Amino acid sequence: MKMNLSNRRGFMKTAAIGTLPLSMVELTFADPQQNFSFAHISDSHIQQIKGTKFVNNWDRGLIRAVAETNLLNPKPDFVVFGGDLAQLGKKEELDHGAEMLAKLNYKTYCVLGEHDYYLDLGAYWSELYGPHYYSWDHKGVHFITLNSILTYDKWTFERWPSDMQRMLEMAGLDNPNGSPFMVGEKQRAWLAKDLAGVDKNTPVVLFSHSPIQKIYKGWNFWTEDAEEVQALLKPFANASVIYGHVHQIQYNQIDNISFNAVMATAWPWPYPASYAQAKSFMPKLTVPMNRANPFFERDATGWQLIDMDNGRAALDYNLYDNTNRTVAYNPKTRQPEDRMFQSPQNRVSPQTHF
Ligand SMILES: [Fe+2]
Ligand SMILES: [Fe+2]
What we know:
Elements: H1 5-19, H2 22-28, E1 36-41, E2 48-50, E3 53-54, H3 56-70, E4 79-81, H4 91-101, E5 108-110, H5 114-117, H6 123-129, E6 134-138, E7 141-145, H7 153-158, H8 163-171, H9 185-196, E8 204-208, H10 226-233, E9 239-243, E10 251-254, E11 257-261, H11 273-277, E12 302-309, E13 312-319, E14 325-330, E15 335-338, H12 339-342
Parallel strand pairs: 1-4, 4-5, 7-8, 8-9, 9-11
Antiparallel strand pairs: 1-12, 2-3, 6-7, 10-11, 12-13, 13-14, 14-15
Helix pairs in contact: 9-10
């Protein structure tokens, strides 16, 4: 039997405190009012095969995340779903995914992914989850979600013979007919206005689906106007961007902005060659990339519990078929680091995973 979630969290906290210098303990817990946690689930890619038949593997990934999140103790303050709830944006897929997400015992904030969007441009998603971008405040932190997967109007409106063709073109990972993601001028103007009313010392956390940075254009791990959005976050002492889409752990620091990617519940990108050899419902990959361990099918799928300690995000990755990992901001180096591999002073014993 795997370790209970609450025990694991308690153990990790105790272990971390035990190994931190006293000054850092005081810093971390200086204002307990501001310390809270939330869960983040992403990229479930619920896919209809026919009628009421859906790809079981993707269903199981989301069901597991919801069940494990509901067992958390202490309870997270809310849950964020990071986008790509559906595979091809169909009503049936969004409904089936929404039914599973509705089992969460917490208030849930949703981000729009390209797989939810490019069939009907987010119309049905909006019926389920409301506006495509919005903000809220919680315990001294300003949270924002953006629709970061827009692209040029010409590509969206003038190029494709059908809505489904448009969706299929954008759904491919490395399709040269795709188009770079962007936040766009309208949302950037909204964001500027939204942030104008926020004190510069207030921690800001922005949720997006695509990374608000330029990682790899060929796979659309990319946001065309990333720099313009980053410029709006620059005046803040402490800003974080948490994004889905890339289905893997990524972390980065650009000036004052910490970037953290989250896992998918469906499959990891890049995925092992073993998947490509069997009949699969994944988008066809034409540029394979090696993985560290190609023998775990579930390697690098899961969900994350995010601790907000004085406005800094620490991501505990709960991995379904691998050792759990934590990526947290290190105030000494002023960047996010993997605690296990980069901060030996914070190292905790290998965890029993779920
Ligand atoms: Fe995805
Ligand atoms: Fe995506």
